[in-house]
């Protein structure tokens, strides 16, 4: 059972006199009953007025008959001395109206001087319907939601001023009120709005889900109220690239912890003045957590890059593997954007055959998130029917964590290639037969010239596990290789002006070059075969 007791009476009267709303009064009285905050605003105001009319001298509770968690308790302490409470007399000048008629008059103030209306109209049914209309019109798929709220930083300044006022009054009663004992505004707001949103959206609130409904509040009338803190505590306000203003909520809270009470009172009225206008809901936004789709792709074109090929802002080729796959996923999942990743990459003129190359696509803020296995199969078929340059297989939904297995295999696993090789001098079968007998050939590969613009200069040790030759004619043969992942095959053939040692040219003692290259297999056992 949550209650206000006799010792709360002066606080209730003080805050009502200064223009504070009933729910903020409950917060400053450390009432922890969630259900109580959900009572209609007018009922709460009438209950507080009724509470003040009770003249019993005993400390028996005047209760609001609700069931909820126990109240936060005020700590009973002896004041250390008048100087600790008065702070050079700054707070003593505040007129404390004790007349009950004056209380009734002042309680009609429309906008709360502490929460700026957040715990008034902005948590009532009309506002909740406005939020839900925004959610429903965004057409998201969700089975539960998490709610977040962003409050103007000046609310922390107003709360601090109200706390100093209440702390003085508590000191006069021989009690103390720690700032941490006050129910946080954001916490009380969520207590009120969560059940209303749940009922209106017909889904539960759940702090662990990926679908987020967020509201950003602003109050232009009082925007500059925290600016004095930048002069008093300049170290707390550092410019940041991703922040539009230095006056963030966390910076203001840090400054309020640092500033001396007497300095605060020189710059800010205590109690805070009553504003003319409510806060504005600057933004009502929805966001779904990312969904991840994985599969394997085959690339059959020798004129198709893996990702868009753009140099100095100019597009070189009209499409890419990434785009041919992602355009269909984007449309079906109704996502804002995507991020493509794969287990390695092939050059624009290299085909990927066999069972394909593992890939994963992160779909950012998707509207649709639930797909059956049959729907994923149809989506795979749609991708495959759209182009003869690529094919995908094993298309499936995966977790973010599972993608790590693909990246682990990128450097650890082996890859199999088929290369068509040309030599300047004529060759016979016996000239290349010895290559079949070479096992675990160690290479030193200096970063190839062709990728030096995007890769750091280094010498990488790589291994050619096996080779098998297929003689074609006097100047051509096909070489099948099984290599360590990350081996530069083209450079192993032609030597890259001596930057890869040994190479096919040096082993055959003649000039060699590569005409065609195919990836036959990427030996990463992911994603699972369907």
Structural write-up:
With 530 residues, the chain is an alpha+beta fold. Among the domains are: 112-225 and 268-287, no CATH class; 290-412, Alpha-Beta Plaits (2-Layer Sandwich); 415-522, Alpha-Beta Plaits (2-Layer Sandwich), CATH 3.30.70.3190. Helix content is 32%, strand content 23%. The protein has 18 helices and 19 strands. The protein has helices at residues 9-17, 22-28, 34-37, 41-53, 82-86, 100-106, 125-137, 154-172, 185-201, 228-232, 249-258, 261-267, 321-333, 373-386, 400-412, 429-432, 489-494, 504-508, and strands spanning 3-4, 62-63, 75-76, 146-150, 175-176, 212-218, 280-287, 291-299, 310-311, 314-315, 337-342, 351-364, 390-398, 414-423, 441-446, 459-473, 476-484, 500-501, 512-522. The strands form five sheets. Strands 8, 11, 12, 13, 14, 15, 16, 17, 18 and 19 form a ten-stranded mixed β-sheet that branches. A three-stranded mixed β-sheet has the order 4-6-7, covered by helices on one side. The protein has a two-stranded antiparallel ribbon with strand order 1-2. α8 (154-172) packs parallel to α11 (249-258). The protein starts with a strand and ends in an 8-residue tail after the last strand.
């Amino acid at each position: 059972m949550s209650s206000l007791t006799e010792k709360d009476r002066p606080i209730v009267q003080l805050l009502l006199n200064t223009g504070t709303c009933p729910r903020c009064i409950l917060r400053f009285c450390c009432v922890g009953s969630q259900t109580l905050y959900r009572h209609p605003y007018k009922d709460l105001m009438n209950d507080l007025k009724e509470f003040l009319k009770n003249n019993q001298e005993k400390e028996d509770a005047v209760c609001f008959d609700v069931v909820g968690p126990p109240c936060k308790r005020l700590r009973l302490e002896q004041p250390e001395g008048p100087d600790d409470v008065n702070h050079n007399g700054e707070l003593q000048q505040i007129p404390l109206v004790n007349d009950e008629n004056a209380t009734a008059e002042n309680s009609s103030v429309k906008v709360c001087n502490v929460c700026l209306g957040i715990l008034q109209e902005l948590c009532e049914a009309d506002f909740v319907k406005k939020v839900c209309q925004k959610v429903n019109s965004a057409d998201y798929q969700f089975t539960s939601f998490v709610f977040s709220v962003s409050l103007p930083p000046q609310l922390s300044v107003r709360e601090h001023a109200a706390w100093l006022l209440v702390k003085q009054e508590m000191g006069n009663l021989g009690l103390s009120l720690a700032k941490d004992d006050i129910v946080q505004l954001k916490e009380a707001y969520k207590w009120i709005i969560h059940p209303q949103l749940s009922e209106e959206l017909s889904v539960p609130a759940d702090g662990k889900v990926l679908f987020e409904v967020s509201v950003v509040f602003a109050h232009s009338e009082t925007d500059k109220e925290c600016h004095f803190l930048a002069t008093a505590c300049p170290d707390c306000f550092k410019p940041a690239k991703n922040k539009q203003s230095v006056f963030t909520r966390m910076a203001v809270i840090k400054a309020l912890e640092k500033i001396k009470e007497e300095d605060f009172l020189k710059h800010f009225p205590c109690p805070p003045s009553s504003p003319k206008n409510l806060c504005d809901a600057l933004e009502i936004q929805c966001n779904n957590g990312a969904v991840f789709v994985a599969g394997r792709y085959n690339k059959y074109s020798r004129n198709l890059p893996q990702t868009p090929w753009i140099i100095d802002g100019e597009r070189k080729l009209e499409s890419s593997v990434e785009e041919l796959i992602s355009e269909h996923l984007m449309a079906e999942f109704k996502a804002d954007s995507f991020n493509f990743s794969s287990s390695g990459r092939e050059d624009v003129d290299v085909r990927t055959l066999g069972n394909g190359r593992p890939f994963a696509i992160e779909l950012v803020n998707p509207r649709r998130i639930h797909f059956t296995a049959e729907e994923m199969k149809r989506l795979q078929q749609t991708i495959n029917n759209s182009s003869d340059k690529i094919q995908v297989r094993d298309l499936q939904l995966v977790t973010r964590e599972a993608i790590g297995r693909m990246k682990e295999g990128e450097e650890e696993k082996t890859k199999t290639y088929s290369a068509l090789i040309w030599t300047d001098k004529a060759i016979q079968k016996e000239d290349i037969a010895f290559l079949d007998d070479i096992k675990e050939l160690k290479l030193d590969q200096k970063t190839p010239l062709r990728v030096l613009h995007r890769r750091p200069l280094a010498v990488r040790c790589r291994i050619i596990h096996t080779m098998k030759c297929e003689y074609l004619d006097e100047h051509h043969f096909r070489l099948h290789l099984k290599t360590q992942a990350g081996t530069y095959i083209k450079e192993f053939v032609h030597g890259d002006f001596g930057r890869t040692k040994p190479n096919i040219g040096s082993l055959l003692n003649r000039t060699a070059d590569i005409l065609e290259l195919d990836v036959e297999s990427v030996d990463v056992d992911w994603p699972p075969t369907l």
